[in-house]
Amino acid sequence: MAQILHLYVLSTLLFALSLKVTSTSHHSHHELKSLHFALYQHETINKTGYIIVNGVVGAGVGQTTTPFGTLFVFQDPMTVTPNISSKVIGIAEGTAITSSFDGLRSISIAKITLRLKNHMGSISIVGGTHNVKPADHPVVGGTGDFMFVQGYVTSSPVDLKGPTVTYKIEFHLYWPPYANKFSLHH
Ligand SMILES: *[C@@H]1O[C@H](CO)[C@@H](O)[C@H](O)[C@H]1NC(C)=O
Ligand SMILES: *[C@@H]1O[C@H](CO)[C@@H](O)[C@H](O)[C@H]1NC(C)=O
């Protein structure tokens, strides 16, 4: 009898505990802030992007390829529509190192400064990118209103012809629950 009572108490406790955990995670899920939007990055060779160190082997320098080992540095405007004359609300500063022998892939590091209506600051991204196919880049953090932000950005080619190439950059940003507490005290 005592054992049955014990079991009963234990299962009630466990049930209460599981309820608590569920409601807590539900609560924080509710508070999770996110932002989803797209901008267009424009890169003009020898104007907003330069080869700083020549690559050593593989594909030649072309519209979409660079030799393995090429070090490229850029400071590209990001506009609200694919038209380069549209409003600039972001700047992408970074570097890319060609990491595949076909000259199409690179490892990219970038700081993207954003001036959105209600959010100012920057996010930092890092990851592999592809010159002619969509690629996801993890967001590793941010500054200003983007402090502690995580998520990913997807880059996809829009226009690869002509001296200026254009990529669509889709942002999927998520603020962890502790980011709210930080901004309250900041
Ligand atoms: C960019 O500048 C480099 C070095 O001056 C030159 O070799 C290359 O042809 C230029 N590329 C374009 C597309 O103008
Ligand atoms: C881009 O915007 C400019 C200025 O608003 C406009 O004159 C031009 O026609 C637009 N280009 C395209 C391809 O829509």
From TrEMBL:
Localization annotation: Secreted, Extracellular space, Apoplast
GO cellular component terms given for this protein: apoplast
InterPro entries in UniProt: Allene_oxi_cyc_Dirigent (IPR044859), Dirigent (IPR004265)
Keywords: Apoplast, Secreted, Signal
GO biological processes: phenylpropanoid biosynthetic process
Record flagged with keyword Signal: yes
Homology family: Belongs to the plant dirigent protein family.
Assembly: Homodimer.
Protein name per the record: Dirigent protein
Organism: Dovyalis caffra
